[in-house]
Amino acid sequence: MTHSIQADQGWRVWWQLTRPHTLTASFAPVFLGTMIALDQSSSIDWLLFLAMLVASLLIQAATNMFNEYYDFARGLDNEKSVGIGGAIVRNGVKPKTVLTLALMLYVIAGIIGIWICSQTSWWLLLVGGIAMSIGYLYTGGPYPIAYTPFGELFSGVVMGYLIVIIAFFIQTGEVTTTASLLAVPSTLLVAAIMLTNNIRDMVGDAASGRKTLAILVGRPTAVNILLAFFALSYLWVLVLVVMGAVTPWTLLVFLSAPKAVKVVKTFKRYTEPLEVMPAMKATGITNTLFAFLLGIGLLVHHLFTL
Q1: Nearest Cα to Cα of residue 192 among 162, 149, 222
Q2: To the nearest whole percent, how much of the chain has pLDDT over 70?
Q3: What is the Cα–Cα distance from 295 to 37, expressed in whole angstroms?
């Protein structure tokens, strides 16, 4: 088995372990926060942007590995499990190796974070530390957040809202009302990514004793909540434009709406995990497109006002 990993699959095992389709949940908020900062200031420190981006991606990848390790340790993952990296149950990678790699990524992200703090504010050390702790406690520790109805809340606030605000803060040295308001859709869409995961895994999660939001409210209501997350994200930007809080160029986000509609239709039509996998990936793509288009709208407005 080990020889097969090295000779036949190589890096693909480790790449899948990061669950690459989820990494956009880190890239999108960093990009958005930076574009908000550019729109409200005259320049951007691109080295700080890259450092923040790399640290966020490393934390997300490590969180996915913690998930892989602890779900295996608790007997939740097997060779037929859908949506996992599969390095442990399919490819024979030792669980300790996965855990060690996750911790190494955390250390590297922490070092990058310390450098960012040295260039901006040491208060970020506390904020970043809390965010990394939640990333670990999402599936690690005696009371994993992922096993409760609060998974969407914590992931949305930390990965959606907080990353946008930190990316904005390291460029501007402040947190503005506009930045906070523009971070709300990101919060909702990251929560949507987690919700699609929990809707897909409802049967297995219920059997293992999890009490996720999807299990608590039932599948039809969970899909409607997913619809509400999407709808509110677009409505939020529309309201901000109507109120004159942001540029009409931000309405570019509506170009991503068809993808969101397709996600909801898929979840309403299909129930099997393999059947809804494309919709899960599409949710991540929707999050990325939304943040990218919102950021581009702000960039265009900035360029026109130079």
Answers
A1: 222
A2: 90
A3: 10
Q: HSE-up of 106 (CA within 13 Å, CB side)? A: 20
Contact 171, 49 (CB under 8 A): yes
Contact assessment for residue 219 and residue 271, using Cβ atoms and an 8 Å cutoff:
yes
Note the helical H segments in 243-272.
Answer: 257-269
Give the total residue count for the chain: 306
What is the reported pLDDT for 208?
Answer: 82
Rounded Cα–Cα distance for residues 230 and 262 (Å) = 11
Whether 67 and 139 have beta carbons less than 8 Å apart is answered as yes
**Cβ pair 281, 24 in contact under 8 A:** no
**Which candidate, 18, 201, 21, places its Cα nearest to that of 93?**
18
- Residue-wise pLDDT tens digits, 4-46: 444 345 667 767 777 777 787 788 999 999 999 999 887 899 9
- What the block records as the tokens of 203 is 């049967």
CA–CA separation, 160 and 286 (whole Å): 13
Question: DSSP for 28-40?
Answer: HHHHHHHHHHHHH
* Encoded tokens for 1: 């088995």
Whole-model pTM above 0.85?
Answer: yes
The closest of 76, 70, 57, 205 to 138, measured between CA atoms, is: 70
201-242 pLDDT, tens digit each: 898 888 888 899 999 999 999 999 999 999 999 999 999 999
Largest CA distance in the chain: 61
Q: What angle do CA 73, 90, 273 make, to 5 degrees?
A: 85
